[in-house]
Specification:
alpha+beta; single chain; 3-stranded antiparallel β-sheet; 242 residues; 36% helix; 5-stranded antiparallel β-sheet
């Protein structure tokens, strides 16, 4: 039995029977539903052309119904004593089913997490804009390949550098205040369209448009800074002005 978010049970049926045995009595499905609804043993003598006896038993783990065992037999009969004798088996089966459910849930969660991580990593590494993650000491903890190419740094060399070292002495004070406030209080929404003069490793400068947002992971607050080289845009604006 698998429960939906709305509390509706979905019965995933598995049946074992000998090769010469016919399908269970047509009333069996209704009796299994009764076991689920009552979460209690159901014993019935089934009439019809092929009379049979049915015993339905709930598999309960903790306070949760996780499955049902239903057995039917032509001719013979079941009773409360037999249901009681099967309780140790039911407890064991319920634990096994619950373990299988938990294992399947972990596998699904792991698969989804791996897919999400791959998706985000692809975006991070292939983005044309530079993406930096800055800790509460203003040091760069993560930088994508576009950052290193744009700023003229070897791959991985940006990690550990203070973020303010990348914008030279003429840093826009709005960015400095923004980064400081963001790391102390967090930013409710990303701030963008701030233009600064970024500095390459060789000392040359270029205009960059900056977007800043905060990222909370547990009790740790970091900033994500995305910047884009807008040299072509600035030169085009100057040409239009001339």
């Amino acid at each position: 039995v698998e429960w939906s978010d709305r509390g509706v049970p979905d019965l995933n049926t598995r049946a074992l029977r000998s090769a010469d045995q016919r399908f269970p009595h047509p009333d069996t499905a209704l009796l299994v539903s009764q076991v689920i609804a009552d979460e209690a043993a159901v014993i019935r003598q089934l009439g019809g052309e092929e009379p049979a006896s049915f015993l339905g038993l709930p598999l309960v783990s903790g306070d949760r119904l996780v499955g049902v065992i239903g057995v039917s037999s032509p001719g013979g009969s079941y009773d409360e004593r037999m249901a009681g004798m099967l309780q140790p088996l039911l407890s064991t089966c319920a634990s096994i089913v619950e373990s299988l459910h938990a294992s399947a849930a972990r596998d699904r969660a792991r698969s989804e997490l791996e897919s999400t991580a791959t998706f985000l990593q692809t975006i991070f590494t292939s983005a044309a804009s530079g993406i930096l993650v800055v800790d509460d000491g203003f040091s760069i903890t993560t930088a994508n390949p576009a950052d290193h190419a744009m700023l003229g740094f070897p791959e991985g060399a940006l990690v550990g550098i203070p973020v303010f070292d990348l914008v030279g002495e003429r840093i826009d004070q709005r960015v400095r205040r923004l980064v400081g406030r963001g790391l102390k209080l967090g930013l409710r929404s990303p701030l963008s369209n701030l233009v600064v003069g970024a500095e390459r490793l060789d000392g040359s400068e270029f205009p960059a448009e900056v977007a800043v947002s905060s990222m909370q992971i547990g009790d740790k607050l970091s900033l994500v800074i995305m910047f884009t080289d807008i040299t072509d845009r600035v030169e085009a604006q100057r040409a239009l002005a001339r």
